[in-house]
Every structure is written in structure tokens, then in C-alpha cells.
Amino acid sequence: MTARDEGAAGRRFPAALEALVLLAVPVALVVCGWFQFDQTALLTFAVAAGALGLFFAGFERSRPALRQVVPTAVLGALAAAGRILFAATPDVKPVSAVCILAGAVFGRRCGFMVGALAAVVSNFFFGQGPWTPWQMYAWGLVGYLAGVLADAGLLERRGVLMAYGFASGLLFGLLMNSWTLVGFTHPITWQTALLVYGAGLPFDLVHAVSTVVFLLVIYVPWRRKLLRVRDKFAL
């Protein structure tokens, strides 16, 4: 194997490992929901927290330079501040839009970190609890997938960007509602599932629509400035 081949394999392995770690969380939800284990809330909490820990450890092992950490921290803080600013309007939050922007400009890892940081930091205001790792994971996944789509060049299309913005609100709601269903609803039946998802759907739709609106407002000007920063400092 040549040095170039080894380098390519080294780049592919972390991406594959990231995908497995992130996929483990919804798989755990499905398995716990299907078999209806006792203490499913604790089991799924442990899986979500473990996935976050592995992802953060991988980010740490990559030894990012300070100039690479700063945009992640700043965008995470902006997303958290935006969530707090719109505290009076449930599910009208700019967090998903900022996560998408971070993933599109700085890559999937930055997108994940921004979402995770935004959730944990803003919950010092809203309150920490067993929901925090799930919010960290859900918003992190929104940013991560945005980075994947950006790498494929799909977010250059305005229609795809807005469609993903809308889908991201539904994805966040699906994950949080699934955690509620699996962790706190016993027994799980089609009727209880319909009740949980039906009750959350109006809020998820508001989240989805507001994410599209925030993207329409901030995506183009913020992206232009962030691309300038990325290119200037070779991030």
C-alpha cells in the first residue's frame, strides 16, 4: 500500500467510525423500543452519552489548532444565545440553522460540535436533565449531515438547502419524540406511538418552518463572511 493509499484509508476510517457511532444511537432506540426492556430510559441515555463521548474524544485526538477551534466555539455560542433569545417562542429557534451553516462551511465535525455545544450551553439557562445528551446528539446530527451534504455539493442548490432545513426540524423532533416514547411510555403500542408523535408534530412543524426562515435570513450573508474567515486562516 502506498503512502497516499494509507492516508486515504486513514481518512476513510474515522468517517466510517463516526457513522457507526452516530448510527448506534437510533439503533439503540429501535432495539429498546422493540424489546421494551426495563430501564430503557437509562439504557438509551447511556448509549447517547457514550456516542457523544466517543465523538468528542475523536475530535480531541485530532488535535485541532486553536484557529480551528475558535469558529466552532463562536458558532456554538451564537446558537446557544439565539436559543435563549427566542425562549419566549417555543420551537422557534435558530439553532438548527446555525448548525447547518457550520457544517456547510467548516465540515461535518464542526457542524456536530456546534450543535452539541449549543444544546449543553443553552441548557444552563433552560435546565439540564436526561434530555440534554439527546438534544446534543440531535442538533449535532443536524450539523453533521449538513457537512456531509455540503461535501457532496448539494447545499449549493437553494432548494436542497431549504428542503434540508425543513427536514432537520422534523429530524430533531423525531429523535426527541422517539426518546420520549421509548424511555417513558409503557407499554409501547401503535396507539401510544401515534399519541406521542401526534402531540409533537405541531411543534416539529414550527421548528421546521422557522429553520427555513432563519436560513433565508442568515445563510447567504453569514456564509460569505465565514468562507472569508476560512480561506484567510486556511481552516
From TrEMBL:
It comes from the Bacteria. The keyword Coiled coil does not apply. The keyword Membrane applies. It holds the Pfam family ECF-ribofla_trS. The chain crosses the membrane at residues 15-35, 42-59, 98-124, 136-154, 161-182, 194-222. Keywords: Membrane, Transmembrane, Transmembrane helix. This is ECF transporter S component. It comes from Adlercreutzia faecimuris. The lineage of its organism: Bacteria, Bacillati, Actinomycetota, Coriobacteriia, Eggerthellales.
